[in-house]
Each structure stands twice: as C-alpha cells, then as structure tokens.
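Recap quiz, item 2
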Amino acid sequence: MVRGSEMVKISKTLTEILVCPLSKQPLRVCDKSSSLISDAIGVSFPIVDGIPCLVPRDGEIVETEDAPSECKADSFDSKNNHKTT
Amino acid sequence: MNRPTGNLVRSFLRRSFCTAENIDTNLHTSKLQIFDRQLKRKQRDRAAWLINRKDSLVNTVADNLLDRLEDVKKTFPSALCLGGSLEAIRRSVRGRGGIEKLIMMDSSYDMVKLCKDAEKDYSSDNIETSFMVGDEEFLPIKESSVDLVISCLGLHWTNDLPGAMIQSRLALKPDGLFLAAIFGGETLKELRIACTIAHMEREGGVSPRISPLAQVRDAGNLLTRAGFTLPGVDVDEYQVRYNSALELIEHLRAMGETNALVNRIKFLKRDTALATAAVYESMFAAEDGTIPATFQVIYMTGWREHESQQKAKRRGSATVSFMDIQKEFGGQTS
C-alpha cells in the first residue's frame, strides 16, 4: 500500500509521544484524510506537510457515521501490520 | 464567510456585547482570558517571516538557557522545545545536554515550517528532530515521555501559566528537567511609562498596551505550585539600545512580542504613537541619542520528582543538637 505523496509521514518519535491535546488520550493516524484522530472526543487534527497541527482550534469534529468507513483504523500500534496487507 | 445568515447575525450580536470576538468560542470560557492566543499565533506567523537570526537578545537568552545543561551531569536524550525562540534554541544546542531527539513545538505553523526548512543546515550535529504545531496550554504530549522540556521566551504569553507548567511537568519523565526563560515584570518599563503618558495626554485615558508579566518573586512560587522539585530561579537584565523608538517596535514585531491582550484597543492613533515615541525619546534617550529598552529575563529550572533527589529531612528528625555542633566546630571558626 504505497501512496507516495499522499502517505502520512510523521516520525516515529512523534507517533510515540503524541496524544490528544484535550483529552490526553491516544491518537490514531488516518492516511486518507492525512490527519490524526482522537477517538475519545471525535476530533481530527490535520497533518500539513508532515507537521501535525495539534492546536485545539485546528481540530475538526469528525462526523461519527462516516468516520469508520472513511478512515480505516490505523492505530499507531497496528500501523505496520496494516500496511503489509 | 459562507455561514448562513442566521449564524452571522447571531455572531454579530454576540460580538457587539463582547470586547473580544474570540472569547465566546474559546474552550475555557470560565477561565480568565488575558491574552488572545489566536492573535499571538498570527503574530508568530508574521515573526517567522521577519525573523532576524542575528538578534543578539534572543541568541543570548537561548545560549544562557542552554548553558544550564552543562551544569548537570545528567544527559537528556529526548527533549521537547516549546514555543518562543525556537529557532535560536535549535541553533544554540550544539551537542549540549546530550540531546539525541529534539521535538520542536510552536503554536505557529509558519514558525515550525521555518525551523523544519532550516534543519538541513544543522544536519552535522546528529540530532533527530521532529516538528509539530501545538499549544502550550494544551500540551499534546504523553505523560512521562521526555527528559527535558525547554521553553525559551514563550510561556509569558500563556493565560494559564501554572497550568502550562503542570502539563510540562507531567510530560517529563521522573528526574526530568524543566528549563524556561520568560520575560519578567521589569521588561519594557520605559515603553510602559511612555505609552501611559502619551495616552493620557492625547486620549485622556489609558488602555493596556503592554502585557502584565510575572514578577521575580512569583517565579519561585510558580515552580513549586506546578509541583517541580529543586526549583531554581535567577534573573538577568538586558539593555538593548535602539536608534529610535520605532526600531524597538520593529524588533518586538520580529520577535512576535507585540500586544496580544484580549482587552486591547485594536487600533493605535497615529499621533498617539508618535507622541509615545517622542515621550520615550525625551525621557529615556541616552547622550548619544540612542534609546535604551530593558528586558528582564527570568530563568526557571525545576525537576520532576524522583527518589534519588536530595530533599530536606522531616521536621524533628534530627539526632544531633546544634549545641554539640557548635562545641565541635565552634573553636575552629573563632
């Protein structure tokens, strides 16, 4: 699953330490919309040019119905396994 | 822009009762809002384009702050650098503190982007850097994940300084170090006086033009209130000389340090501005015609608690009397 420029590239260091700024809960990467999603509060934060923007104001509320279909669950832990499929 | 009219009218109505248009949408309405964080982001975006890499004030402060890393034997493999003079910190690290991973955060995207683009210039020092946009008041960092938090001239713009410091402490691993430099209350005292006089004279009243800043005596309390152990505070005062008061304002703008108070009056009349410059020059100008401006920087250090750190013994746990100590050593000193 190689998408070239569309692929979300954020460093491993960041994926290890970033959490949702509001709930402090883990985030997951959404490749399709290139954003980080906080499931705890249903907000997505954009990744612009490889830089995650985690200011609460930059976040957008994710519509709950289409969130699971639009963004396949790529949690940080299962990310590598997911890519090989 | 393309909001439905109902919303527009509503937001207009709300706006007309409120001095700050962003206050109603702010996440913590109950909390006291002193600074307009959104405006500060914009100012920092602008500062990213105006940045002066040879700014001696910023470079000195960054260097002074990082110098403290050489006083400790501990190394800090992972470090988080919070907003403020981000770029100057990156330039001044130069292998100090054994930093291997550096995470740079700022509330302004342009500022972070600038640092990211400049990264190729520092590829020689083998520091793995990552970049993110974040707000110090809502720190998106997992608990106990970094060894060092550096904040150089950024935290004095937070509405909730203790809160931001508590979040930094939580982000630190046990025995991690928090290093911060903020502007203190004596900063720009000349400008404060000149602004007040000119406003009184031209407009018959005063509006806030310069931020309230932490005093030195508050800094120690802040550190202990945020739960840091072994707190340390020291102060430095810098005098910068400018050719004119307008150059001072330009310098502030390049640092992203212009007025971001929620209750500010959003325009400055031209003649008031000129009067301020004139008052400044007549009251404070040196003999050679230069204009001095004071910058007071408060350096704060604190550690996240760890059992290996020294601490005071419990009250009443002493087993030796001071009388005995005096008997033992008293003879030698006299």
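The first strand of chain A starts at residue 28 and ends at 30.
Helices of chain A lie at 12-17, 67-70, 79-84.
End of item.
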